[in-house]
User: Fold these one by one.
Assistant:
Number 1:
Amino acid sequence: MSNKFIVEGLNGKKTLRGEIRIGGAKNAILKALAATVLFDDEVQMTNVPDIEDVKRMRELLLALKTEPTVLKKEIAEKFRASIVLSGPVLARYGKVEFPFPGGCVLGERSIDLFLNGFRAMGAAVEEDDSYFTITCPSTPLGVNKLKGARIVFPLVSVTGTETLMMAAVLAEGQTVLENAAMEPEIADLAFYLNECGAKIEGAGTPTITITGGNLLHAGGTPYHTPPDRIETGSFAILAALAGEDITITNCNPNWVEVPLKLLEQAGVTIETGKDFIRIKKSDKPYKMVSVRTHEYPGFATDLQAPMAVFMSQCEGEGSILETIFDGRFRYVDDLVVMGASMVVMNPHRVLIRGPKELSRKNLASPDLRGGLAYILAATVAEGTSTIDNAYLIDRGYEHIEERLRKLGLNIKREAV
Ligand code: EPU
């Protein structure tokens, strides 16, 4: 059964107020769950968000209990982060079989960096119609183990970095990852793995050095999921668009400095503390900004669609340059029908002119972050809009309608 959201628009008024708490980061917990394969004991986890992708990762891990080297196709095809499990499973069991991973359709999302990384660590890669099969080389003792290697990523990949970093934890000898992704979730995971016996240096910088060793041991030390910085940025944009006075709590403002900077540049009044962001209404029209997505610490591609909605309400002309993915403007056509002035120049650039009044539309979420952008657009718009494919939003945002209702938005979920 699928669900849709029904949102009564505020017609450009800024009336939402109150507190909204940030949940645990999707793109941190999914990797931490995968990392449990590297442990010889139970790992406790706190601040785990109740989102669909976490349920899928749990199902995938449970299925490993019956077939320890197979990532089940029906589940792995539902989300991209499934591929992260391939590293720990391969490193621990000497073999892994997995399908091409699913996830949001954002253009070409290849897996060559993973396969080449495994090859560099001595593994053999085979492929048939449904599965990739990766096998570790056997050692003189008959144990199949990965070998440490120096791996230079030709481009920066978040899940690629995480997968090979985790694989290297159980490999023989030292692995060096160059041009690694620097997302804070990676440093956070490495910190926890180190507490449990791993030897990872440099996570959070472009060079990560991992010295392989034995299985990790949690010994009762829990993993605490850090706050979701994409949720933080998304709600900051919501507050700028529709808030009278909104405080975003339980977040890390240092992880969203660039998006906050851009909002401030546009004229949004922002106050930050150690773990909160407060945004108050300003009556002056916002000035247009331009955005260029970039790997962390740059402007996150996952905030690109929500930011486009914000820009549709700014005065002047600006552009978004999407540098990570080549298919992430699928939301544009619907926003244009709602009244936004946006022109896709090529798969990487969209021009936006504002401010434009938006009006109601029946929408269907194109992907996770695009879906959130539709909720923002529906909030700003005149009239009542519906957003189908709620599942895609539920993949990454916990009980979004309940949380937004507390701010005063009239939003409901309905089965269709
Ligand atoms: N790429 C390759 N070959 C590979 C891997 C990636 O060519 O083997 C390319 C991709 O096609 C893309 C670029 O490298 O053009 C960067 O992709 P990256 O691998 O960094 O993305 P990802 O690891 O698949 C993660 C997040 C995404 C987020 C991106 C970029 C997870 C589970 N997903 O994806 O999050 O957009 O990093 O920051 O961590 C989301 O949460 O909605 C989401 C899509």
Number 2:
Amino acid sequence: MADIQQARVPDIGGHSNVPVIEVLVKAGDTIKKDQGLVTLESDKATMEVPAPFAGVVREVKLKVGDEVSEGAVVAMIEVAGDGADASPPVEAKISDEKTPPAAAPSSAPNKTAAPELVAAPTTSPAPAAVSVPSAPATAPPPSSARADFDADAVLPEQVPYASPAVRVFARELGVDLGQVKGSERGGRISKQDVQAHVKAVMGGAISPSTAGGAALSGGLNLIPWPQVDFSKFGAVESKPLTRINKIAGANLARNWAMIPHVTQHDHADITEMEAFRKKLGEEHKDVKVTPLVFLIKAVVAALKKYPSFNASLDAANENLILKKYFHIGIAVDTPDGLVVPVIRDADRKGLLELAHELGEISAKARDKKLGAADMQGGCFSISSLGGIGGTAFTPIINAPEVAILGVSKSQWQPVWSGSEFVPRLLLPLSLSYDHRVIDGAAAARFTAYLAQVLGDLRRLLL
Ligand code: CAO
């Protein structure tokens, strides 16, 4: 009789309702022990749930978007033999007997910011299995099984051993995982290994020509970063970067280096908009209506008119994925650094609803209460420095988006009406765009249209 057992979500560090972001197997798949079944992403990390035994997947119980906690059934697996991997032991099986059954998470630090800004580190929870009550007693629940990884058995030959999240991270950086040495058990490549590889290339320790990666072999043949003892020149103090600083910094550096940015500057005459905004503010004391909410609405209108701005390049850079939804990322300055929460379905929300939500996400960001889900799925970002000052700047595109709008402080300026100078309130707009996807003419049209909508909000009704 077939011995069908449940594979369950193991101890995931006390997290609950963790979203499934990837389903790695389907019914009928023959799987090896420890092969990833699904990937979960908490606000701290991305985790693969490995198969607790080898066999054939009879039914997958989860789908992307489900939220799970420890003990949730992932799949029904018909166990092959004793459930152990039939392949002979290979060098990759390096766990020693003292290794506790619940594989400790990798030493990767926890993640606190957006996946769009953060490539999540990985952990490898131990397999967990619970026998179906009717299953024969001969199938012991291998919940105490060691999390031995057999890279050669899990992955096809020649494929570097890394979790999907690490693969995505490496792909985004243009790193060939075949060139990266894995430091984890079984030679598994962690996100830190990829980062160390990139650092080594950038620092000159590995020559770009031998480093692999598409972007790297393309010739960022930089001289090493200057090593300076600043204290030789005067008093200094060392202040550690926050975790958000580091994560945002790494992502900004990658995006700046890998995306050919061009910034189109324009301005919108918001004299009438400002009068309306003030009126709204007087009528609705319970919510702060700033120019940003009008910008969100105007951006949505422009994205609808110019769909290539509401898009991302696919992983192979061969197709443009056009999005039919309108989720707008808002750069928020917090004491710990920059984060980009996302306002979902901005096209379906009115100005006041957007104002409420903007207030909520800004407060949440500053109170460090944003979860991963709050920062996922953005289509286009807005970075507003309008409350602070400035006349223009170059915002850095939040990959994999293809454009970002920077907004500076509006100012009263004399504008020639044809017969005289009249005072008008002008709002500076700075649109950075990915020149691989968007031409200069399209960017000029996009910003001009934005300015037109902001100048006459009735256009939002069209
Ligand atoms: N021109 C003139 N005044 C503006 C303005 C503009 N473009 N934008 C906002 N203001 C005004 C607001 O009306 C408000 O005035 P009152 O207090 O008199 O009503 C004041 O500036 C402060 O606004 P705010 O910053 O609190 O609100 P917001 O909706 O404009 O922005 C948020 C919210 C979260 C985006 C903002 O607080 C923030 O964090 N901005 C920084 C983003 C950032 O760091 N970007 C850089 C990324 S690259 O490093």
Number 3:
Amino acid sequence: MPAVVAVVALGALGWYWFSSLVPSSYSVMDMGRVDYGGGPAHAHGAAGVSVADLTAPADGEPDVAVTLAARARSFDLASGERVQGYTLNGSSPGPAIQAHQGDLVQVTLTNVDVPDGVTLHWHGVDVPNAEDGVAGVTQDAVRPGERHVYRFVAEDAGTYCYHSHQVADAQVRGGLFGTFVVLPTAGAADAQDVTAPVHTYSGHRTVAGRTGVTTVDAAPGARVRVRVINTDNGALRTWVSGASYTVAAVDARDLSGPTEVRDQALLIAAGGRVDLLVRAPARVDVGGETALVVGPRGTRLAAGPEPGHDLDLLSYGSPAPLSFDPEHADRSFQYRIGRRIGLLDGKPGFWWTINGHLFPDVPMFHVSEGDVVRMTISNDSGDVHPMHLHGHHAVVLSRNGVPSTGSTWWIDSLDVADGDTYEIAFVADNPGIWMDHCHNLQHARDGLVAHLAYAGVTEPYRVGGGADNEPE
Ligand code: C2O
Ligand code: CU
């Protein structure tokens, strides 16, 4: 009798183990749980337009054309420290790409020698789906010796970045990223423009690729727009020493009625961007000894005390009308993040869950083009998660039941702290199959990934498979 019990128990364990395995090759459309968010169901899979065909206009001379060559190697930071990682055209961050609103942007990515393959994802840019750069979802990884061309129109002015979305955790941490800024077309710039990507390379916290204090020339009294971009896996706390500042934009969307901020820090989610308006001389601190000083050459500005408070964007600025009505949503989804002991791809551990399930048994959120979509993101997993939806900007409606009373707060990367619940809403206006994941890319690797799929879109790519696509 005990032998039978043991066999049955082993059998059950074996089945549990087996059923946790992630197939070596699969379409993201076949994984997880279909979720229509209370809206009408629709057939999906077989017929429709392929992700590969959801492109920008194919012809026309690009206004901005860039070629980026990816390499795996050790390299020197601009401040001299040697690190092991990845470069684009010989450096990390890669070239700062700048366009004007309405420009046709063309980027040719060549993979010189990154063994795992590479892609480029236009983080925060609501590009057509085929240009989204996710290995196994919107393209195959670019193997060594191969190339891939991205083409899209820079529709929305703002601060963005680009990064590999193949083996993303290792490649982004190792430096395979750069900044992308879209300047408004109309009128002269209201301020001097400075781009400040913050990244930690093997323990070295940098601004624009340098440790320590980096100085950018600015005349005393000049207004400067500092575009702070967080390309790390954790939240970035930034503040301005010696001056007040104004938060002009968050995640590439202008805030309305922003007011002057003093003695408060600002938390930037992993993948998040903020535009700070300061008056020179000013010192933008990002923790440790690392800072950006804007001021006349030779300016020395000591770090002020780190503020004890964080600015709350839920009540910052003044409201502006929305172009859609989130009270009449076509679909409402839950994105509940938890954590439990279980098997992920056969490995026992304390893993992230989405709506109670482990990857790949996670939701597939289905929408139709034109839907107004609400999503409730809650987190009781014991850690913070910077949640990033590709291809769309969403507006924050509330946090923990408290409605947003400040500026319309558009996000594409939203820090959801442990214990917090956010309600967000967006218009499904960009057909495709889009990742919706945690931008702590280590967490994404550990299964904190779901997707948003449009009715009538089919998926020709596979995760794994011959191209060894491994998006996270
Ligand atoms: Cu910047 Cu899917 O990520
Ligand atoms: Cu996370």
Number 4:
Amino acid sequence: MTHSINYGRRQFLQYSAFGAAAAMFPELLLANPKSARSSPTPGFKPDVEIEFSAREVFVPILNNGSKTKVQKYFAKLLKGPENTVQSFEDNYLGPTLSFAKGQKVRIYFDNNLFEHSIMHWHGLHVPQKSDGHPMYSIEPGERFVYEYEVLNNAGTSFYHSHAHNLTGTQVYFGLAGLLKVTDEEEKKLGLPTGEYDLPLVIQDKQFNRNGQLQYVRGMHDRMMGFLGDTILVNGKPNAEFAVKSRAYRFRALNGSTSRIYKLGWDDGTPLTAIGTDVSLLEKPETKPYVMLAPGDRIDLWLDFSGRPVGSKLAMYSLPFSGTMPPMFERMQRMRGGGQGGRGMMGGMGMMSGGLGQGEKFPIAIFHVTEKVGDSPKLPVQLVRRQRLTEKDVDNADNPLPIAISERHMRPLVNGRPFSLDEVMEIEKVKVGSIKKIKIFHPHEEHEMASQTSGHDMEGMDHGGMGGRGGGMGMRDEMGGGMMGGMMMAMAHPIHLHGQQFQVLSRKEGHVDREDYETVRHGFVDSGLKDTVLVMPGEEVEIIKPFQDFKGLYLYHCHNLEHEDLGMMRNFYVH
Ligand code: C2O
Ligand code: CU
Ligand code: CU
């Protein structure tokens, strides 16, 4: 497969407004995305209908009487089973949605914020017009209508703002909520339900003295990712769950913008995972700990059977290293970590909070308060899935590249920054195909060229990487200064819209063995994923189907500061 890129056309697309893009993607109706989506389709008969709105409100988060200004999703169920929408009072989190596979869903989204916004159904496989692409961002007072059938199997996902350039900000200020999908297969398993099936939405925030949220303060926070020093679970600090002596399903979601969690019990008891990103595993997996990157979900089977009443178990984020540039991790250690760590570096505006990436801290306490006789048993087999293999793909020798690099303190994907509607030849995918994709860090420009040969990525030199040459890696003397190349030395949670993928292989990069050991056993790569943590220098191969729907589907870093910096591109499925 050899493509050549027509420079003229690419330039045209790159600078085009919606109207011009519509010429290229007529089926997307980009010419007027708003009027195209502001009213329901008469022929679509929804089983579930929900009216969403996003508003600024004050909610109590800290237990000190203060109220914090947040952005919050409110939802009203117009049609469908009563348990579809479960709202949280006194919380910034959006309601938990419960969908069933096969349901037809219509959602009205009213933007009552003071800025543009759009909702995205992370992990759901929906038509492009209902995926919440940032090009569909609507202005205050406007309405957007989503319509889709739930095609996903049972599992855990979430929805969140995907506002153009404001995704990180709006998610941080509250615009996210949990989304569960159930199906017949799952029901037969007898997994814990109702009060034994609980969310574990983990986020880090930073509050000022008045109890108000603080977000990024400068370029450093954007590049390295914003880290808050207060850990919230389900929207509250110091989480404690009163549990019975039986098994629970906890649906862990990392709803942070950039913090990575390494979930584990303080006493070394292993953790059992039964699901990953909107997907149950074939078999439960027991791990010493699990890594949870921004955007990731893990369904945990937490069994308190046999634990005496009064016992307490602490879930921690255990220490790890290697996900940040070595220099940054050294500074973090120098600072001593933990509380009040705004020492020298904090004073220099180098650190965004008192709690570094990879430091140890408690997430939640589980307090056994009641003894019960009986508990569901952990199934030996969960669901039967055909594992995707290289035989299923049509490009085994020529994987689609997702090359992570940076230039002048800006992250690049395949050598390019984000543009709403730009698509390169290598980003065009035939609908119905199953592709092998290679996520990697090109160390040198020529490597990028050779890694992607057969795809002819020459076009990239034209816009993104050419000219000055050597725009990537530690050699970037320009602009980046001491931060140049640091994004290359970070772990990135790479998320692809559309269908879930299978992780095929990981080839370690330049992370120290010792550092890699602190994360190695926490990847649940056996399940289907829509977000995968790629360690610095690591090469991760995945297999992903592009079925059913045509259009633009995003792929991006789910470190939301990186996403807003433009670490995002489109696949054009045609
Ligand atoms: Cu969770 Cu493109 O997003
Ligand atoms: Cu998504
Ligand atoms: Cu990133």
